[in-house]
Amino acid sequence: MLLTITTTQTPSAPASDLGFLLHKHPDRAQRFEQSFGTAHVFYPEAGDERCTAALLLEVDPQALLRTRTSVSTPDFALAQYVNDRPYATSSLFTAALGRVMRTALRGRCEQRPELARTPLPLELHLPAVPCRPGPERARALFEPLGWTVRAEPVPLDPGLPGWGDSHYLSLTLTGTLRLSEALNHLYVLLPAMDGGRKHYWVDETEVDKLLRAGGVAEAAGEEPEEPAEEPGWLATHPERSWITRRFLDRRQRYVRTALGRLQEAESVLPAEAEDDPAVEERAPDLAEQRIGAVLSVLRSEQADSVVDLGCGSGALLTHLVREPALRRITGADVSTGALARVRESRAELLVGSVVHRDPRFRGHDAAVLMEVIEHLDPSRLPAMEEVVFGDAAPRVAVVTTPNAEYNTHYEGLAEGAFRHSDHRFEWTRAEFGAWSDRVARTHGYTVRRLPVGPDHRDTGAPTQLAVFTRHDPEEGAGS
Fold first, then answer.
1. 116 and 23 share a domain?
2. CATH code at 111?
3. DSSP string computed for 364-394
4. What are the CA-CA distances from residue 469 to residues 40, 59, 191, 212, 326 (Å)?
5. pLDDT band (50, 70, 90) for residue 167
6. Taking the mean position of all CA atoms in its chain, how far away is CA 311?
7. pLDDT by residue (tens digit) across 153-166?
8. Residue finishing a domain among 256, 273, 290
9. Could you read off the pLDDT of 24-62 as tens digits, one per residue?
10. Residue 189 lies inside a defined structural domain of this protein
C-alpha cells in the first residue's frame, strides 16, 4: 500500500521543510522493519517549490503468518496455513503509519514548532485503498474535514471492462491543513473505509487510539500544550457514529464508551446518526433481540445441548454458556481467527464448515444458524441443508436471516442492495417461507416462522426466524 504526501512552497517556508515535520530527511531513503513486513519512507521529489514524501508498506505474508494467533487444535493441523479471508490491508498500513510517523501524527516538531502548527497546502494520494461502501462514502468522510476529494473506483481488470469495479479506490485528497491533522484523518478513516477489519485483537486500548487521533486531548493521557479551543474533528464529524463503530470493529461496549466521550467533548448530546444499514443491523437493540429470540426458542423446546454453526467470534456463545439447562455447548466456524476470539471455557470449539459433513456436528439436541445462510452462495445451500438437516439432524434447528423487504426502512441503502457486503442474497418473507417449507418437507421437520425486531405492517420485521422441529417417528405418518 502506498501513500504520497505532496506540499508546495509557502511564503514562510520552502516545500522541502516537509522533512522537518516528518522527521525524515529528504536525501535519505529509510526502511523500518515491522512484525508484518517493511515500511519504506523516501522522497520522489524534494525541491523548494514542491516536495513529495512517500510511505510504502511491503507486507511479508510469512512474517504475518508468524505473528498471527491461530487456534491450536488437533482437528485442523493446517489451521495456521489456511485463512478464509485476506489480511486487513488498511489496518496494517495504519499500524505502520502510527509507528513510522508517530511524532508527526502528534503534531510535534522541536526544530520548527511553528511549522507544525501551520496549515500547509497538501495533496495526499493513495492509488489503491479499500473502500467497500464506495466513492460516495469516501467523500462523505473527508469533505466535512475540509478536503477536496477525488475518488475513482479501480477496475477489476482494465482490459476487461465488463468485469466491473473492485472494492478499491484511487483516492486523492487536496486541502490546506496541518500535517498532523491530515495524518490523523487517514489513521482513523482508512480502517473505517475498509469495514473495520483489523489484523489484531480489538480491546479497550483502541478507544484511546481513536479519541487521540480524533482530536480529543484527554485520550492521549497527556496535558495539552495549549488549551483546546475546539472539541476535536471526530466529535463534530457528521459521520462520527458510523466511523466509531467501524474503527472499533463494532464492539458495542467500546463503541458506547467512545461515543459517550465524544459527546462529552462536544458538550452536547445529539442523536446518533444511524445512516448505515449494516451498522443498524448490528446495533445492540436488534442484535440483542435476535439473540434473545434464539434463546427463547431453545428454552421453550427444552434443548439440553446445542451446536452454534457459524458462531463467528461468539456473540451467541457468550449467552449460551450462561444457560444452566445446556449440558453441552459447541461452537463451529470456518475461520480460525474468529474462533481465537472466543474465550468461553464451557464451549467446545471446532473448525468446520456447514457445507461439509462433519460427524462432530451430530449428537446435539439443537443447532443454530444465526445470520449464516445469507453468507453462502445459493449454489451451496443444498450442501448446507444436507449437512445440517440430513446428516447432523438435530431435534430442533433455529435459522435467522435478514428480511429483504425491511431494507426500504434503511436510509441510504440503494434499491436491491444488501445490508452487508458479504451477503450473497437476502430473501423476502415469501422466499424464506418457501425455502423453509421445502427443507422441512424434505428432511422430516415441521417449521414455524417468527419475526424478530420491530414488525412493520407492510414490510415485516428486520430479521426473520424459522424453528424446525423434527418429526418424532413414534408419532406415525398421520401425526
1. yes
2. 3.30.1610.20
3. -SEEEEES-GGGS-GGGHHHHHIIIIIII--
4. 59, 49, 43, 52, 18
5. confident
6. 16
7. 888 888 877 788 88
8. 273
9. 888 889 999 887 789 899 999 999 999 999 999 888 766
10. yes
12: in domain: yes
Chain-centroid distance of CA 153 in Å reads: 20
* Domain enclosing residue 177, as ranges: 2-200
Reported confidence tier of residue 365, pLDDT bands at 50, 70, 90 = very high
Q: Are the C-beta atoms of residues 138 and 185 closer than 8 Å to each other?
A: no
- AA identity, residue 275: D
DSSP 271: P
> Residue 268: what residue type?
V
> 46 with 14: CB under 8 angstroms?
no
Instruction: Please state the pTM of the whole predicted model.
Output: 0.54
Domain boundary among 253, 273, 293: 273
- We report the CATH number of the domain holding residue 381 as 3.40.50.150
Instruction: Looking at the structure, tell me whether residues 380 and 357 fall in a common domain.
Output: yes
CB neighbour burial string for 59-90, b if at least 16 within 10 angstroms, e if fewer:
beeeebeeebebbeeeebeebeeebeeebbbb
- Only one residue has cell 495524518, namely 183
Q: How many angstroms separate the CA atoms of 211 and 224, rounded? A: 14
Q: How far apart are CA 264 and CA 244, in angstroms?
A: 15
334 in the same domain as 190: no
Decide if 61 contacts 89 (C-beta within 8 A). no
The count of domains in the chain is: 3
